[in-house]
Amino acid sequence: xxxxxxxxxxxxxxxxxxxxxxxEKGPGITLQRSRDAQRKxxxxxxxxxxxxxxxxLKWEDWELGGEFTKTLLLKNIHSKLQKLRFRPPASKFFTxxxxxxxxxxxxxxxxxxxxxxxxxxxxxxxxxxxxCKDGLFQVSLRATIPRHALDLPESVLLPPCAVLHQSQxxxxxxxxxxxxxxxxxxxxxxxxxxxxxxxxxPGQECRVTVLFRPREALVYQVQASCAFGDKGENSCxxxxxxxxxxxxxxxxxxxxxxxxxxxxxxxxxxxxTMERHFEILNPSSITTxxxxxxxxxxxxxxxxxxxxxxxxxxxxxxxxTVPVIFSPVTVDSTTxxxxxxSCPGALNKTLLKVTGTCIGPQVSLSxxxxxxxxxxxGEEALRTVDIINSSSVEAQYQFDLDTTGHSVFALEPACxxxxxxxxxxxxxxxxxxxxxxxxxRVACLLLHREPLFLDxxxxxxxxxxxxxxxxxxxxxxxxxxxxxxxxxxxxxxLGAMLAEDKIQVDQEGALMxxxxxxxxxxxxxxxxYYQGCAGGRVEAELGGSGEGTSTNSSHITVDPPELLFHNGxxxxxxxxxxSNHTKGKLSLVWTPAPNSPFSVTPSSCDxxxxxxxxxxxxxxxxxxxxFHGAQLECFALYKxxxxxxxxxxxxxxPPWCVTVRVIGHSFQPGREHFIPRFSLQxxxxxxxxxxxxxxxxxxLENIGDLPLVFRLDPEECPSVTVQPTSGLVQPGHHQILxxxxxxxxxxxxxxxxxxxxxxxxxxTQELSVVSVVEKLCVSLEGEGSLFFKPTAVGSCSxxxxxxxxxxxxxxxxHWRIPGPDQRFISVAPDTGVLQPNETMVxxxxxxxxxxxxYNLKPNLTFWPIQTPGCRKSRLPLKVVGMASKGSIQAEHxxxxxGEVLVGDCRSFEVxxxxxxxxxxxxxxxxxxxxxxxxxxxxxxxKDPVAxxxxxxxxxxxxxxxxxxxxxxxxxxxxRYCWDLTYQTLSSAGSVLDAPQPLCQVQGEGVFPTxxxxxxxxxGSVEGLSKLQIWSLFSxxxxxxxxxxxxxPPELTYRVPTRHSLRRCPSIFTSAMLDFNFSAAPLGSExxxxxxxxxxxxxxxxxxxxxFPEDQQIELEYWAExxxxxxxxxxxxxxxxxxLFNIAPRSGKLHPGQQKAVTFSYRHDFAGTDRLxxxxxxxxxxxxxxxxxxxxxxxxxxxxxxxxxxHVFAPVAIGGFNPPKQVYxxxxxxxxxxxxxxxxxxxxxxxxxxxxxxxxxxLNPQGEVKPGRTALLEWVLSPLEAKTYSVDISIxxxxxxxxxxxxxxxxxxxxxxxxxxxxxxxxxxMSVPSTQRMALPNQVLFLSEERLCVGDxxxxxxxxxxxxxxxxSHSDRVLYTWNLTDQSVQIYxxxxxxxxxxxxxxxxxxxxxxxxxxxxxxxxCEVTLEEALSQYHQDLQQWELERDRQRNEFTLTxxxxxxxxxSYPQGHTxSxxSYPQGHTxSxxSYPQGHTxxxxSYPQGHTxSxxSYPQGHTxSxxSYPQGHTxSxxSYPQGHTxSxxSYPQGHTxSxxSYPQGHTxxxxQESNTKEVxxxxxxxxxxxxxxxxxxxxxSSSAVVxxxxxxxxxxxxxxxxxxxxxxxxxxxxxxxLLHLGVTARSxxxxxxxxxxxxxxxxxxINRSARPNVTRCGSRQSRPPSVDMPPFxxxxxxxxxxxxxxxxxxSLLDDPHFQHSLxxxxxxxxxxxxxxxxxxxxxxxxxxxxxxxxxCTSMAYPGTREAPSPCPSTPxxxxxxxxxxxxxxxxxxxxxxxxKPKVERERQLIIQETIRRLPEFCDxxxxxxxxxxxNLMVEAFLGELVLTARPRIIALPPVSASxxxxxxxxxxxxxxKGTASQVLExxxxxxxxxxxxxxxxx
Length: 1891
Fold this sequence. Notes:
mainly beta
């Protein structure tokens, strides 16, 4: 984008251009420099007409008043000389050379200077125009002024950013001008630019950083405004785009608790560290920053978890790993901490719980006592003991035993580190110095553990003294005596007391007093160690702080227990005091140590009971600047024990050992002491926050190579006691310090404890001691309140509740719920341990039993885990719950699954809704019922339940919806109904109430179903009707089989598969049908049948047609046997030659879909072909279809029979008018044939039935055209109610004879009654009546293809309406109805349809006078008008060429030998045969007429006119003896005004039966009909046209090789110009079925339908059959006038009637008056035929046979009775009228005249003719309305217009009608009716409702 200052309005040029684009290497924006682009453009040379030059000269740096010249270089780059003329610039500011011709040779150049002289500071523009012989071109001249301009991008897109985060990008913008330009950016939030302002030199670029920090999750698009220029007078904008989203981070850790993830460290040894990791996941598409922080912890708690990452960023869809280090310090403690993951802008925080347990060492000794036995003085004894570490923690140990020789016991090593899971052997030496018993209890100090004790005993004997020997049992007795308080008595006293029975001996041999004194409490190991270190004074000093205050447990004490010699002198001494607390005299013996600087004087002495004595400890170092330390050992024993003779074994008491720790150094004052190098583990010591004596241990290691002396001042921190307080640590050794204190509430948070090293104040180390008692504190969620959601009565609702320990102490808790409340609420866990800083989520359950509000108050009791017997703390909790009654319901009361495939499963969901305020627990139950009444009850009960619920039990939350996943697996084809019920459950899962109805699920188990909904045929079987194809292919049975259930064997292979090793695969189905392709000649078109398959079910159907080869498993060649049966060979032949073909063979149809499948049969081999094809529905039926087709030789006469048996419809016995029935014969050959029915079996059947013709054939012989069907008419008249069967032979002339079996059944009406089978049962009711699919190139469609009129009475007429529709968009079509049966008429019979046009056709079925079965196939021939026109043009050209060749010839010598033209033998030119239906000129002329005497309809030519068979033009559609000019038309109408259907003319109204306009037959001329395959005559140039010959050659076999002559004939035939053949019309079949009954039978069985039919009573039903059906229109079944008595009787009767009428003068007068009347409008009146050939003067021409304007009346739709019939029908009426006339007086009175008129009116109303005419009028009126509505002339749905007429009563109507009749009384009956119906009043009454 280029931002610039608006320039001079006088200049229209642009100063700068810029291009923008994105850098493909990164997200940044690449800006192309417009200045460089312009410079490149200006320097770029262009070629104009072969001259290379610049397209533009530009001046940029110029000043006013100067001259600036630039050179325009012109170069000729062509290879020829060019001369240029130029026009100089038009303005005065640009000047150049004087115009001249510039001559440029090839490759030369010319420089043209151009000078610019500006006078004003603005932009200038001009051109120089160059001319050459090839054209002209221009060079632009432009001068620009500098202006401020910035080159910057249009928009900047920033990377997506999280809310409250920041993203940035960089873009560049440049000063595109030559002026110094300042800029200032203004950017709205949340964007910010840096820098926001500045100054740019010309061409300078600036790098701008865009910062984006959104505060909401939005899409941001803001305009950044930049003001630039000298004073910011110009501005431009930049679009800043950014996208922000809410950040979201997840923690991935191994553990999971409610509300947080858990990172578990497990057990970690003390002093060790463990590192574990967790991941932070960023599933979003934006980079997110985070921070990790600890939740608030209790005060003074130790931090043992270290998180390696505190903050950072996570890239989109990535994760980072965060390490956590656990360093425990307190043994046997569990530490819990919480890490909170937070990120700016996030909607929530994520917690991570980290926890770990610290474990310490587990150390033990292999033996707690070592017995050295009795050792002589001066000798030593050695023993070993094992120290064992059974834990995974390294153990630090130290034995509190002197190692410098001041003890009789020596141990190596005395201290060290014991690796995990190891042991070490310790060596102990016993070196006694005095003959006495020795016993010392040595403490083994352990870091982080209580000390272990090892008892060492040994006895020393000398030659003079032999004290009692100590044994381990003496120590056991000593502990019992100590516990009983007897150790303070000397052995001699105990012996005296035992002798005096003051004490007794127990079972173990121990002494006991009769009254036991207060027992000495047992001390803990730590207390015992502290007592030994303090010289037995611990309990006395602590007083009540210890567990006991008795001093009897300390037999001897020392004071002080340690001595320090830190004065630096070489010889010094201090005193130590020992006190005897026993009741006996003690001997004190100090253990001497040679070469030791420490000594005690005296070394031994006796001390009386309860006395004290002092000893002097001297320190005499032998050298300066050294450290010394030792533990002086003194043994105290009862003096009487020194002699074993004075002590009994039961009263022997081992000696006691006391120690004095001494430390000294020989550093002189002023000398620097050694610098200590030590390691102190855990300088911060934390004691439990309990008011109990607690101990902690600290490890001090000397890591230097010099001795280390340490000392703790007990006075510095009196509340904390440390043992030992001083000591010497050798290099590489360590000292375990033990701290003891009792925390108090008033203690400070930190107690200082200074550790001094090397007796120097410079070397100190401070120990921080935390010894504070904390109050127990537990936090309850919700300020101690818990609210339950509404809960259903009897059910249970749960709620989580959080409890947190806010202290440093592990607490044990327990929930106490009052007894009555325990029925309603419970908690889990109700007891447990809360570690310090731990948060526990507990689950509370609420189970109400009544509908009410519950207020409950449980208590939380908790106490420290170390003091189970202390006082417990309590916290109350307020629990509120509300109970209500709950219920559920289904979203749909009835759930219909539709159809489900049997054996398959369908999953669905049942939505359950809980509209209540509480959750409901439920259990579901399913009850199945089969809605098939045909199934037995046992089957329904035993059938497994087909509906399975994935979850039978569950809980629905309040106001929620739950989907229950269900599966249906139907096992049979039936209608299923499942009733779902539910029961509410309690919290324990028990049922609370009775089953309640929930919903009903319905479904139907189905198999895949297909149905054939339509069938079409083409090719060789085009002449077959839909009914015949339906029967040949057994489609009714096929549909019936497809609707049935498959048998279990049919489901052996549910899908099509190759399963057979034979060529004839196994059959698993019993359903077998025939697909009969009928018969056709050899070499004819394939017989194609198109079936429309429709999936009528609701599940998809996969179908396939499997040929035998499709079911066979392909074998290797070596596995083939090579032996085939005849059937296998035939199947191989059919399949290899593809005689039968199906396209497509397989497919899948979804519900409602249709698919057209083509079945074709090729007629390549003569004979009968069969092939079994398996029709397989996946998971459904298998049907074996036997394909069968017959191919006939072309010269063979062949009738095709689909079956050898035919069953007639049952006929009632005793009837006088049995119905006529038909049987079809189909000619499957290529030539016409004649047949004859053998009637001898019929005659024999008649003879067997007493001469009664039970079965008659009305047309036993006849002819059948190729590819057409003939009907055999039969009459079955049974005598008995039984089945008649007769075998009849049908002989084919020059063909085969077929034996057929005809069966007929008779029944008794009186027995069957109303159930008698007299109703028309159409066996093919399933045949579709409408067309579902179209054939290729089909353009005309019928609205209905089958019409079932039903049961009708004889002599009735039924009409139906059809529609023909032309669906083409471009083609006009001609159609013609081929009416072969006289009982059916269709109007219009032919016509033309434009593209998209429809035509209404009215079909009229006139029932004859005798009962019959009507099964008619009416063919409509359809021809394209374009094809017909092309045919006429080709035919006209062919005829012209034929005439030319006939008249033009060439004479040669060869031609002279031929006297005449070659014609077929015995024929002349006039007898030359032409294609069927055509003569020489394609025009048929009547016999005796020429072409000039023939008239043609309007718009038609000679060749397009057709006439009825046997009629000429003058004989077409006119009454007898009348011509065209005498034809009568309706009153007031002429020929041109006669109404025709819209779109039709007179010439399109009536044509001969079965022909169109262009198909004229020459019926009077006998022709030789050629074969359709016969080639036409050979037409060669300049030669006479040879005769048209018919070839009798028959197409031979496919493998026959043609001879040389045949090949020559074929070559010549390729050059033959054959006569054009007319286009083959497309056939549409219309099937009509009906059954007519006699009036009595119809009234008996169909009384309700009698009023719906009009009976033509003027036509009398026939009783006797007439075999002739050649007259048209059909007769009214009068008896035939054959020779015999019947003819004579009829003739005599008619003669008498005629004579009486002719002799009557009144009759003659009425005839004269009737003729004078005008012709009535209604032409349906039957015309009386007069005998004279010429009509009377003034008489109108009758027109009863003339085509009428309205439909349905072509050629008198009702039968036209002959004259005798009319007279006989009207004789009764004439006689009545004559009689009335004779009785009429000469002067009638008014009353008599009135009666006479009433009689005449009643007589007229009873006339059959009156009823027939009324029916005709009403029928034609309705038909006219239908035609007008179809043509759009009448809107049936429009509101009728009512014409107000005066009311007319019935009497007035009769009187008016009677007066009209009276005026014409002298006429005939028909004339009277005509006169009555011609009344205008009657006409207005009939048509008053028409618009």
